[in-house]
Amino acid sequence: MADLGSKRNSLAPISCLPDEVLSLIFEAACTDRGSCQSAPLNVAAVSRAWRDIALRTPRIWNAITISSASLFLPRSKGCPLDIEVNVGCHSATERYFALCIPHSDRWRSLNIRTWQGDVLTMFLSARMPRLQSLVASWGGRNARRPPAEAESFGPQLSIAQASHSQLLTLDLDSLYLPLNSFNFSRLVKLRLASTHSTSADITPTRELLHTLNACPNLEVLYLDKIYLSTESESHLHQYARAPIHLPLLREASFHFLSPHTFKAVLTSIQFTTSVSMSISTNTDPTVDTDWRNVFPVVPNLSLIHELKIFLSDDIWDVTGCDFGGKSLLTITCVLKGRRGTSNLTHIVSSLIAFVQHHPMPHVIDLRIAGSRDHSSAAALHDFHSLFAGFPLLTSLTIDYWSALVDAIILAPGEVIFPRLRRLCLRWNTIVHNRLVELVRARNRPSGASVSDSANGGVPLQRLTLVECKDISDSLASELREMAPEIKYRIFAPDSSSADSDDASTEGDFEMDFNPL
């Protein structure tokens, strides 16, 4: 039977491929991190021929874990190794280290998650001249507070690597390693999360700026909850003001940093026009936030043409994209304190203050969404000052915020969004008379020129209603009779074709009334 199976395998079309091609296919199949342990074993179990090829392909055996080390290390021969350490039994970890340490000169990446200081010491003190990626995190019940002795790990690692570091990726979570322990000349990705300095002799932000200045090839920068203590505002005056040039930086994320770290980073780095930035911060509802002081510099605001705004009772989120849809900026602001509907006014005021302090004058497409259907008119008069910051707007979408429809109804002589051509209302409760009033205010009178409308701006050209409540049966005909120049599209709440994005204001809409 075994001979018959071997004969059948030899007749399969894939058996006609050269061994070198199969070897390349095996490598491609075993590169996925989720299957890098099982895939080599599965490949080797198919047939004798495949097993022989798999054993002659050392790169499929280079993902080393505590369970695979004894089998994979001999088969990996001389190829670079990816070492993963996720501490369980301490004695098993010591045996694992004893297997791995003779091959430390082949370590390409080290991914270590532990809550045991001696395990960190063992692995980080190894000689790793070919290391390209170091990911280290302090896990377990005390993950938020790394051990005080963690400060000693950096110097041990720096002695091991000296000036021969090949690091491309450095990712530290809940650990403090002095950044001057590393050679950053080749670094492409830097991530620091929940990192604290416990030494009074260290100025972490100055150390961080010095590090960034030594990363000319940096492409991804991620800072999250770092240096929340140990520094005061007075330290800012000690930092060198020389600009930091990162010409290859394409992603930058800054989340819940201390105020002085925010300022130092944003004012020092010279961001390119291609960078995609993400920022998260907190705001105190009891005081007015001066966003020019919180974020002295926000890059590429003038390049934003599409803006999405999300508001709930305790958060606002802004995402800005360029003409091609590439995300340039995402800012999330979380309201401190207890949650509740009374906070909505504070959230709206905080958002409006941000837009006023950091204007985005070239936005032409705006989407505003609530977490639910806000019918309250609280702070709606303030939205007029928000809307005034987008004089070139041509397309507006409002989701789950019925009260905002009132905010864009024009009073005599009032001008809001003078260039608005496309309006989409999705999942709102529609008041019949108010919607008719809105269309009338934004419609040009019969016989008027195309450039004239009742509000002195560009007349509305397209109106889309998606699954809005309380739409009367007579609304469609009344709108068509009053303003036939406008292209309408109305999706009833039970309409299966009302997809959330397909039913947006983009595209060329013909007159399309669904029976209501």
Automatic annotation (TrEMBL):
InterPro entries: F-box_dom (IPR001810), LRR_dom_sf (IPR032675)
Compositional bias segments (type: Acidic residues): 499-516
Provenance organism: Botryobasidium botryosum (strain FD-172 SS1)
Lineage, broadest ranks: Eukaryota, Fungi, Dikarya, Basidiomycota, Agaricomycotina
Domain of life, per lineage: Eukaryota
Region ranges (Disordered): 493-516
Protein name: F-box domain-containing protein
Stretches assigned to the F-box domain: 14-66
